[in-house]
């Protein structure tokens, strides 16, 4: 308890350090979403500086989240020169506003090179914190980042806008149910984070891991995850020591790291927090990823957050557990014991189902990047088809609503295991479905499609916005009703009939579901270039604008950024493959072939009667695969050159997907084939066996 939050300028610290009136003023902004009073900035800044300096801080930074997907920071000392020496100062102006170079971050055309000015703005709703690295302590102030002309250049501003939009529409709906006291609804999130660990010495010998974050070559080891012995297995001492330090760092930062365990693939693990306000959860997940990577290095390991660092075993995702809470203490997705009678719950449930079906393409877009293309639909993650899992109880209620009015709910009860010494277990009303992209799990929805490297901001911006739109349409339809109960029943039935097609409780990994989804008219968007187009569809642009989440320029800017990132990612991977082929694998194959040839000559020189057929067969196989490797390398070089010469960004991305990526797969096939026949002492790269099983 003494450790938790000790490096956070949280409300208990503010209550101690700030004058009572200032604390009360700031707390109203944090708790109620009221405008920040600028007159308190100097007082808060002085208290924040005093607290940070007491803890050893010498510098502060505006900690923000540009469109790179990682965090950014520029450090400034508290130092201010005077005639007699220097003072430690930190003004309200420095707290409230910073000025990083906006043209050096991805802007999608919102900022030209010569248009450099951008602003960071203090987000007082996410507490400042101290980051300790070795003997350096830095005060980190969460901030938003925007251009000189006011457009959002980061992942925080649109997230906060989407949260306000959701709150406004949810409050409208709650007031229809007679709740006149509620003033605010907040979306909440808990983000489960998967990751791999590899020994640092192996990482430094793998150019692909260093440059691309994933292995571009690598034959599968004789053992992978098929024995299912790693999942929830006993955690190795070295990893457990690492996890202990990760937890301690996160607890100091106020991150509620709760759960840790071995994941499915060897070398893969998971950490999960308790869920909280979406804005803070997003900041905390960025901290989680930073801490995972930083602490790993202290243990001579490297943390890999790529969605698919190793072919042949499961990749890593990030499950986004999303719900809504009102400021009077309600979880709006809590069904209660008799959900068929809970009209308010059913309204928010229907709004969510309607949103997911109407904007399925946008949800798919929110999880699109080059890394996640390796996971989605690969029997380790949900397919690229969006569907909703409700479980038997709620699916039955939806069926009843479609036919008329829901009159019953299946009960949960208890389960007798059949051993007298074991307790009778309370049984949930429905099973879980780990194959579903968007699954109801008791009092929240679990969006399972996110990749492990993602900022959770993007998916939650979209979830908040589309559900805000559904709630708006419900409120618009019912606010002037003269017979609320009857009109609500009719509206819920209309929504259920129209959007029931999105509900699927079966195996999302099966081929039968792909065929069934097509019959239902559900979109199936397997690749990132196609998925990203959903962001700039007419419907998407309109819904973002309607709720002031993005204007049209901001939407198109993000589309350009994500298309460009996709192309750059594949370009880096292709160049790295070519480099590894030409400077590592092909020379090794030639050297080994020469050794085998010399062996044949040496043996036959002793006696022509000696059998060298094995060596000759190996040499022939080496020569064939070496020739194929060389040809595939040249083919990739050509495809890459042709793709890079395409001026249109959208067409270029399509060419990378269709041509460059295909040639990369062909080159990998020949490289991995060579690994299987070249003697271990010659092979220049750490193998899957070493990387996955040596920790």
Can you describe what's shown?
There is one protein chain. This protein has 695 residues and is of the alpha+beta class. It has 21 helices and 19 strands. Strands 9, 10, 11, 12, 13, 14, 15, 18 and 19 form a nine-stranded mixed beta sheet that branches. Strands 1, 2, 5, 6, 7 and 8 form a six-stranded mixed beta sheet that branches. Helix 10 crosses helix 13. The longest helix is centred in the C-terminal third of the chain and has 55 residues. The protein is globular and about 100 Å long. Belongs to the glutamine synthetase family. It comes from Geomonas anaerohicana. This is Glutamine synthetase III. Keywords: Coiled coil.
Overall radius of gyration: 28 Å
Main sheet?
A: 9 strands, mixed
Q: What general outline do the C-alpha atoms trace?
A: globular
Give the low-confidence spans.
Answer: none
Mean residue pLDDT: 94
Number of distinct helices: 21
Topology:
Elements: H1 11-17, H2 20-32, H3 41-54, E1 57-63, E2 75-77, E3 79-82, E4 85-88, H4 92-96, E5 97-98, E6 118-122, E7 129-133, E8 136-147, H5 157-176, E9 185-199, H6 200-204, H7 207-212, H8 237-252, E10 257-262, E11 268-273, E12 276-277, H9 278-298, E13 301-304, E14 318-326, H10 343-358, H11 360-365, E15 388-389, H12 391-403, E16 414-415, E17 425-426, E18 438-440, E19 445-447, H13 457-478, H14 484-499, H15 511-520, H16 528-532, H17 538-546, H18 552-606, H19 613-644, H20 649-677, H21 688-693
Parallel strand pairs: 1-8, 15-18
Antiparallel strand pairs: 1-2, 3-4, 5-6, 6-8, 7-8, 9-11, 9-12, 9-13, 9-14, 10-11, 14-19, 16-17, 18-19
Helix pairs in contact: 5-13, 8-9, 10-13, 10-14, 12-14, 18-19, 18-20, 19-20
């Amino acid at each position: 308890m003494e450790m938790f939050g000790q490096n956070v300028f949280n409300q208990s610290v503010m209550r101690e350090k700030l004058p009572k009136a200032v604390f009360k003023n700031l707390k109203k902004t944090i708790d109620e979403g009221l405008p920040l009073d600028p007159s308190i900035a100097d007082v808060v800044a002085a208290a924040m500086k005093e607290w940070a300096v007491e803890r050893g801080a010498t510098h502060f930074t505006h900690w923000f989240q540009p469109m790179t997907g990682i965090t950014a920071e520029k450090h400034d000392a508290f130092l201010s020169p005077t005639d007699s020496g220097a003072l430690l100062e930190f003004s309200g102006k420095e707290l409230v506003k910073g000025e990083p170079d906006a043209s050096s971050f991805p802007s999608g055309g919102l900022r030209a090179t010569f248009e450099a000015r951008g602003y960071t703005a203090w987000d007082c709703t996410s507490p400042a914190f101290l980051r300790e690295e070795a003997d350096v302590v830095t005060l980190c102030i969460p901030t938003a980042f925007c251009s000189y002309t006011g457009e959002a250049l980061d992942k925080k501003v649109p997230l906060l806008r989407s949260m306000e939009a959701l709150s406004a529409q949810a409050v409208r709906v709650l007031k229809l149910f007679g709740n006149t006291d509620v003033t605010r609804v907040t979306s909440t999130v808990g983000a489960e984070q998967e990751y791999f660990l590899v020994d640092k010495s192996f990482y430094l010998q793998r150019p692909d891991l260093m440059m691309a974050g994933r292995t571009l070559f690598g034959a599968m080891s004789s053992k992978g995850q098929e024995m299912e012995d790693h999942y929830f297995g006993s955690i190795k001492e070295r990893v457990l020591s690492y996890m202990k330090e990760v937890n301690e760092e996160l607890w100091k930062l106020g991150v509620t790291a709760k759960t840790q365990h071995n994941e499915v693939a060897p070398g893969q693990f998971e950490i999960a927090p308790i869920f909280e306000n979406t804005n803070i959860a997003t900041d905390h997940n960025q901290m989680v990823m930073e801490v995972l990577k930083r602490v790993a290095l202290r243990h001579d390991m490297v943390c890999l957050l790529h969605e698919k660092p190793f072919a042949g075993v499961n990749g890593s995702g990030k499950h986004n557990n999303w719900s809504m809470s009102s400021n009077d203490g309600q979880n709006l997705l809590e069904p209660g014991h008799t959900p068929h009678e809970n009209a308010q719950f059913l309204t928010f449930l229907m709004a969510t189902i309607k949103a997911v079906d109407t904007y399925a393409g946008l949800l798919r877009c929110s999880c699109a990047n080059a890394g996640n293309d390796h996971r989605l639909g690969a029997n380790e993650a949900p397919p690229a088809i969006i569907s909703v899992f409700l479980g038997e109880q709620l699916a039955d209620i939806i069926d009843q609503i479609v036919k008329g009015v829901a009159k019953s709910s299946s009960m949960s009860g208890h389960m007798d295991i059949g051993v007298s010494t074991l307790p009778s277990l309370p049984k949930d009303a429905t099973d879980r479905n780990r194959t579903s992209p968007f699954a109801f799990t008791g009092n929240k929805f679990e969006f399972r499609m996110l990749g492990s490297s993602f900022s959770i901001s993007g998916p939650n911006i979209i979830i908040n916005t589309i559900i805000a739109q559904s709630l708006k349409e419900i409120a618009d339809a019912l606010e002037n009703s003269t017979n609320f109960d009857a009109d609500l029943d009719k509206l819920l039935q209309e929504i259920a009939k129209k959007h029931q097609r999105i509900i699927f409780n079966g195996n999302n990994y099966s081929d039968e579901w792909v065929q069934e989804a097509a019959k239902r008219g559900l979109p199936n968007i397997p690749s990132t270039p196609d998925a990203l187009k959903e962001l700039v569809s007419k419907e998407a642009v309109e819904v973002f604008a309607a709720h002031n989440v993005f204007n049209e320029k901001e939407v198109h800017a993000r589309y350009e950024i994500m298309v460009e990132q996709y192309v750059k990612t594949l370009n880096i991977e292709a160049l790295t493959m070519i480099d590894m082929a030409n400077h590592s694998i092909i020379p090794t194959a030639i050297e080994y072939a020469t050794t085998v040839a010399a062996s044949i000559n040496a043996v036959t020189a002793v006696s022509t009667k000696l059998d060298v057929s094995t060596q000759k067969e190996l040499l022939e196989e080496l020569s064939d695969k070496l020739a194929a490797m060389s040809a595939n390398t040249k083919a990739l070089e050509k495809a890459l050159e042709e793709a890079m010469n395409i001026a249109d960004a959208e067409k270029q991305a399509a060419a990378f997907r269709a041509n460059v990526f295909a040639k990369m797969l062909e080159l990998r096939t020949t490289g991995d084939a060579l690994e299987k026949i070249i003697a271990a002492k010659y092979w220049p790269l750490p193998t899957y066996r070493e990387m996955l099983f040596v920790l």
